[in-house]
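Narrative summary of target 7.
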Amino acid sequence: SFGELKARIIAETMTDNVSLIDGVEVSSIKQVHPGICTAFRFEKDGSSIIYATDHELDLSILNKEEAEADLDAMRLLPKKFVEFCAGASLLICDGQFNDEEYPAKIGWGHSRATTAVDLAVQANVKQLALFHHDPMQSDRDVETKIAAARARAARFCPDLIVFGAREGVELKV
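Modeled conformation, tokenized:
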């Protein structure tokens, strides 16, 4: 129950406006996912973190034909979501599938790691933490997926830091 959690839980209905919670500006945006799912942006003292779980970015690619014909092409994403993520210190983003797995998983509500890289590049974020790894992927599969995401980032934005989120990681932003 909420009473067992070691955090102070504040239930609040989010709108497109910014809420101020304990000095942290919190904003939200709806994501593409079966049912309802929301991404959050947290900002304080010049740092910002985007938490975007359960988001099938690939369903909103604007240049879908080009991107499907050439997997190396930049996948253009909607301006509204790119602006929401713009300049973030850290983007924590769903990157469940690799490019080969995704076609069989369309509509499941999760993104290709390489499409998350394209969002990070377009939004000019500093760091991208890929998470929501497919439970059927081995550690080696996840490492291979992260390596492919890093290689894509190196082509489009060499300064972008890409890593795989994992249990127990603590980050200071």
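The chain is about 25% helix and 20% strand.
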